[in-house]
Amino acid sequence: MAVSMSPKVAALGGALIFLLLITRGSCARPVNFNATDFTADPDWEAARATWYGAPTGAGPDDDGGACGFKNVNLPPFSSMTSCGNEPLFKDGKGCGSCYQIRCVNNAACSGNPETVIITDMNYYPVAKYHFDLSGTAFGAMAKPGRNDELRHAGIIDIQFKRVPCNYPGQKVTFHVEEGSNPVYFAVLVEFEDGDGDVVQVDLMEANSGSWTPMRESWGSIWRLDSNHRLTAPFSLRITNESGKTLVANQVIPANWVPNTYYRSIVHVAGTRAEMAAALLALLAVLVTTMQFGAGAQPVNHTSAAAVRQLRGSSSGWLPAKATWYGAPTGAGPDDNGGACGFKHTNQYPFMSMTSCGNQPLFKDGQGCGACYQIRCTAKNNPACSGDAKTVMITDMNYYPVAKYHFDLSGTAFGAMARPGLNDKLRHAGIIDIQFRRVPCSHPGLTVNFHVEAGSNPNYFAVLVEYANKEGTVVRLDLMESNSGKWTPMRRSWGSVWRLDTYRPLRAPFSLRVTGESGKTLVANNVIPANWRPNTDYRSYVQFN
């Protein structure tokens, strides 16, 4: 429950907060804008803008892409959204940030500022700052009646500046993500006024009195993996980029269910006693912040040497650490494959034998679908069988505890145990394991292409699954009907590839897949002329 109070009380509280923050030494996380090219107006900076998806749409996906926001075609987003490259997206920390943009270098530009929200990642920037806007947002910069003319310009120069977000009538909303359960809790944070972006979320269980830091899963989704059943109701504490905090007391009820919204409630303190209680509660939050602090930053094990070592280890075993998450006998938190986008990872050929991999394994999405054998021995833990088990990378591990860290599904972790000792091994928490890269084997399956929701004649996105032997896909090309020409697609995220175009694409489409070894496979006319979004199209080809 969020707290509101009268101006006098708020002023007193603000003064107390200020003093406490000075004592704490709190400061905002710096924004990394290196060697900025300033425009003539020092409040504005130079950038490039493109657009994608439908001309008057919200981008390719109303569910917010790499930030995870829902229904971005509806208020308060209202389709005024943008993908941002890394200085704007900030590894997900920039999700929800608001910017004013304007253009003046095209005859169709109005010069009027329009506000957009970062809801997705731009993986292929063409400038230091690159806004890949929805068709709606791009057209909004035009003079009346010239929206289409401006969109036809393609890449344009714009100016931008950071502004506070403003969501009149909206409270901070928490969406409990699909796959959450008593030992795994994931929540999307939306509609934060002011800074807009969230840099830390903490959870307090019922009657615990202590805050537990959650980990950023991806975008604006935060997760908590627990070694015990979490006790609801939960309070959630949000910290934004400026260092300000907001506490929603018991916002997640005892009977919470996944895939559900819970809106924070503003409590208006009326009597002096209520005002005093509100202030004490606010101060208690700050004291708790000083006592418990924030979680450690993730360890960065992404050196090129580490990646080369991994690629050269096909016949030998390397040491790693393993943890597990989600349900004890589940496929992780989400049967739809997390940051790789794979569908139904609890079913064949995944069979819940899945893992999050840190950067040397995930490789910015290029590691999606890679297969590894893992094992642990009695030397590591008496419950270990020593038998090798094969797992597939289906998600990103953002908080590694070692150079190579497999954050396994409960099923995969337990599979390394001796018969009947699965739960005992899972109770060990973090264990030492060995691993090696192996070819993937999907008997009876050909390469599958899933056309993603939001695809349309000007925007085509496809998930590639079940690449035998290779496992990982490093390039995907598309050939339109009767064109005789291959057009490279761009990796959108995970194993999802996309093609944005200024004109309608002509189906049927052929797709050419390149595996990590450099081998190619062509699926001729695999996407038919009457293709539909959110549909699987199975090819007749497979890597041998």
UniProtKB/TrEMBL annotation:
Example GO biological process: cell wall organization
Protein's UniProt name: Uncharacterized protein
Superkingdom field: Eukaryota
CDD domains registered for this protein in UniProt: DPBB_EXPB_N
Domain Expansin-like EG45: 64-170, 337-445
Alphabetized InterPro entries for the sequence: Expan_Lol_pI, Expansin/allergen_DPBB_dom, Expansin_CBD, Expansin_CBD_sf, LolPI, RlpA-like_DPBB, RlpA-like_sf
Any Pfam family: Expansin_C
Record organism: Paspalum notatum var. saurae
Keyword annotations from UniProtKB, A to Z: Cell wall, Cell wall biogenesis/degradation, Glycoprotein, Secreted, Signal
Protein localization: Secreted, Cell wall
Domain Expansin-like CBD: 183-264, 458-539
